């Protein structure tokens, strides 16, 4: 089936000093050939997500994505009206764009399908708007709706970026109907990541929880953020339940060599460590048995030694990095809720 388009052309013939316009011509366009021509443009691959009116997560694979503006921060995606998830996006007040890395071709296929269990194969977080953010994506943008534009058999969603994050993985590319690789995904001088790494000093009944880094070393478990219900999703691993009343800021410091800095919280595990945590590289060490030689950075070794010392003394502090060695603020007394503190008489 063909569609048609119209072209206007002008003659050089004049009648009474006026330029005469020729008859409009109709030229047939083959949609299949046009799709193939569009497909020669190399793109990345995204999964666009939202929450429908029933509170269910919805998502689909999209490669019609582009940045629009830095001030204000805007982007756009195009959603086909024939898509199964179209009604959810047509009425959404917010959405997230998750750019996939080269190891996520299968996730792209799942979200391009009509499967009812798309989200069972991925881990998601909520950041600002509540739209699902894929935890392991190359980059993500959490957006409120700026505007919605009708455009033929698609709608264009223009989003106002409320939060975003990036990683160092190589992108998943797409061209001529197939996935492609990018040979040089991280040019010299390109920032390795956006934002701060959020890490956790998590106490268990037996000691402190550390994680194998895959290079023979040990690091703190990291997560994108702490969820409101105190369930912590460890990146690339399992979910841990924490005591919310004991989770508190512990350290903020920068790293050398342009690496992102770290925000470190201290917390206590509220349940037994799940069996799958051991296969994910999580290990518990007694406070006198921490293998400091296996800790890859001096900053992290310093955090661990300080924590062990302050735990022994029963008095914690908050450390903030600075050019002259940092500042430490001692915490006197027990932690308490803000509402309780706010109502304390002066």
From TrEMBL:
Record flagged with keyword Oxidoreductase: yes
Q: Which InterPro entries match?
A: Flavin_Rdtase-like_dom, NADH-dep_flavin_reductase, Split_barrel_FMN-bd
Q: Which UniProt keywords apply?
A: Oxidoreductase
The protein's superkingdom reads: Bacteria
GO MF term list: FMN binding; riboflavin reductase (NADPH) activity
Is-annotated flag, keyword Transcription regulation?
A: no
Enumerate the spans annotated as Flavin reductase like domain: 38-181
What family does the entry list? Answer: Belongs to the non-flavoprotein flavin reductase family.
The entry's protein name is Flavin reductase-like, FMN-binding protein
Give the species this sequence originates from.
Chelativorans sp. (strain BNC1)
């Amino acid at each position: 089936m063909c569609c048609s388009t119209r072209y206007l052309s002008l003659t050089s013939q004049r009648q009474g000093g006026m330029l005469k316009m020729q008859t409009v011509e109709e030229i047939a366009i083959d949609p299949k050939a046009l799709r193939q021509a569009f497909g020669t443009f190399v793109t990345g691959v995204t999964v666009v997500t939202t929450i429908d009116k029933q509170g269910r997560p919805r998502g689909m694979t999209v490669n019609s994505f582009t940045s629009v503006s830095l001030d204000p921060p805007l982007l756009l995606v195009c959603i086909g009206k024939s898509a199964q998830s179209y009604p959810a996006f047509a009425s959404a007040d917010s959405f997230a764009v998750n750019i996939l890395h080269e190891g996520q071709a299968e996730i792209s296929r799942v979200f391009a399908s009509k499967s009812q269990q798309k989200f069972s194969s991925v881990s998601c977080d909520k950041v600002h708007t509540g739209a699902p953010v894929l935890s392991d994506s190359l980059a993500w943008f959490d957006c409120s709706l700026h505007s919605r534009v009708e455009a033929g058999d698609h709608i264009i969603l223009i989003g106002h970026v409320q939060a975003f994050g990036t990683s160092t993985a190589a992108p998943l590319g797409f061209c001529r109907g197939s996935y492609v690789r990018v040979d040089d995904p991280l040019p010299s001088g390109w920032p390795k990541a956006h934002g701060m790494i959020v890490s956790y000093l998590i106490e268990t009944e037996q000691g402190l929880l550390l994680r194998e880094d895959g290079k023979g070393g040990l690091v703190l478990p990291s997560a994108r953020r702490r969820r409101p219900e105190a369930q912590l999703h460890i990146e690339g691993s399992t979910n841990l339940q924490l005591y919310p009343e004991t989770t508190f800021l512990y350290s903020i410091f920068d790293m050398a060599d342009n690496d992102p800095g770290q925000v470190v919280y201290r917390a206590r595990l509220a349940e037994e460590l799940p069996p799958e945590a051991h296969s994910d590289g999580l290990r518990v060490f007694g406070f006198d048995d921490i293998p400091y030689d296996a800790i890859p950075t001096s900053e992290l070794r310093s955090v661990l030694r300080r924590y062990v010392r302050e735990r022994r003394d029963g008095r914690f502090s908050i450390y903030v990095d600075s050019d002259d060695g940092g500042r430490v603020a001692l915490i006197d007394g027990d932690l308490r809720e803000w509402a309780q503190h706010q109502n304390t008489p002066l």
